[in-house]
Amino acid sequence: MSFRMIQPWENPRSEFYWFRRRVPKTYRTFGMPAEIKFSLGTKDWDEAVLRCQEENLRLEREWRANLVGTPPTELSHLQIIALAGEFYAETVAAHRDEPGRAIEWEKSLKNLNDRRRAPIGPLGPHLYVMFAPEVRAFLQRKGLHLVGERLDSFLRAYVEAKERASRALMSAAKGDYEPTDKPPHYPKFEPPNPKRKFAALWADFAKERMISASTRKKWEPYFAQLIRRVGSDDMSRVTEQHLLDWRDALLATKMSSFTVRFGYIAAAQAFFGWAKRTKKLPYSPAAEVFVEVSEKHKTDMRGFNHREAATILSAALAPPNETMTEENAAARRWVPWICAYTGARVNEITQLRACDVIEVDGIPCIKITPEAGTVKTQKQRTVPLHPHLLAMKFPEFARKKKGETPLFYSIARQRNPNRKNPTYTSVGNKLAHWVRKKLAIEDPTVAPNHGWRHRLKTEGRRAGMVWLILDAIQGHAPRTEGESYGEVPPDVMLPEIRKYPWYEIEAPVEQRDKRRRGQRKIDMTTPA
């Protein structure tokens, strides 16, 4: 990285010149701001230029020191003062028995005061220039790496402790081993525990709890916001008051209490609760942080009504647009119909692979498994295909692809296979957009994909399906421990699935006419 010269910034909201610079991407850590800016405390341009370059040089040195691979150490104010106390104690102990001549300590004190006095500009950069080498040597012995404000704070505490130690040893050299100007009591230094850092805890949490990519994408910004509020990524420093203040700040915005409770606070309770149960943190600061949600603002979601279901399923039968990829066309054709007859979550279907369409004891089924992507309960289930799906020849369509090849998206066309938002999630989002914007089903009380889960439950009850088997078909968690005993195999599900009535749906008339005129067809099986 080459050294970059910058000029003071004229902040329109301040009478002083300011320092302003973006943080290099290679240095940014989790929760760190993308830009650093602060007042230079002067109205004089030439003075501002000098201070700006001093601050820029300080930041460059810190960034370069960190880029070699050593992560910065997060210390609280208490830990910084305690660390300075360790330096004081070590300095006094090294010379206490044989302090030497008092005049030498007088000279040392004078030299120290001369070095600490800034001739011009802010004190922080000056202390860095004068004391950084010995400070870094001390920190290196302790296995610590401070940067930014933490280093500035320790520099000041270090110089203060150095002066106090020199005065104590000067008194000892004069025979007074109990100087009248005793330093304040330094707290005991407790080194930071790297295992309590957010990144390490989050990695373990996501792995042990098998957190989906979509949940990680949703929750990580929540914790980034919390880290900025706390001022540290050491999770052992997060208190209940931090979370209460965070909750109140969120509620003070236009964010609904429902979102705060079931989004932000739910994420914190899940994470900190896990950390306490696994003994990674002594307690959960989120355990008693609650958000009241008024029942008046609660929206009861419903399933698709007959007209809405018919609209979607009919449109799904229409020939695909020529600009659509084969996989997107297949998703629009089959996913709504499979959801309609299984009540599965949309991403459980969009993630299906060719090898997930199977036969069990002669019964055609789909296997919904976490190996393919996201399953909310993290449990595999095998669901028989409704006779209508067999009549529509869905298994024949699936057999055109082999092995672990996805049915509804292309691995070859993925922009980033490791992205936080999986491709099968994007497929579900596109279907939701199609239902909302193209088919004009815009009622907020019915979700554009999840509406099938509600509808299957409603129509399943109407058809007399056994409720426990209906829950198993949809992948709902057992309500009691007793319900979790044993399995609900496909041969038990199939009689209940056959109770569910067929959808008597055809493609729109104008679409059927287009198909007969020879509009481009995607290679997939469609009903006659």
Can you walk me through this structure?
The model is unreliable at 512-528 (pLDDT under 50). The longest helix is centred in the first third of the chain and has 26 residues, at 148-173. The protein starts with 8 loop residues before the first strand and ends in a 12-residue tail after the last helix. It is 50% helix and 5% strand. The chain has helices at residues 45-67, 77-95, 102-116, 123-142, 148-173, 198-208, 213-230, 240-251, 257-277, 306-316, 326-342, 346-350, 387-391, 394-398, 423-438, 451-462, 467-474, 490-499, 509-516, and strands spanning 9-10, 17-22, 35-39, 357-360, 363-368, 381-384. Helix 8 runs antiparallel to helix 9, helix 10 packs antiparallel against helix 11 (326-342) and helix 11 (326-342) packs parallel to helix 16. A hairpin with a 6-residue loop joins strand 1 (9-10) and strand 2. It has 528 residues and is mostly helical. The strands form two sheets. It has a three-stranded antiparallel sheet, with helices on one face. Strands 4-5-6 form a three-stranded antiparallel sheet.
Please sum up the structure shown:
This protein has helices at 45-67, 77-95, 102-116, 123-142, 148-173, 198-208, 213-230, 240-251, 257-277, 306-316, 326-342, 346-350, 387-391, 394-398, 423-438, 451-462, 467-474, 490-499, 509-516; strands spanning 9-10, 17-22, 35-39, 357-360, 363-368, 381-384. By secondary structure, the protein is mainly alpha-helical. A hairpin with a 6-residue loop joins strand 1 and strand 2.
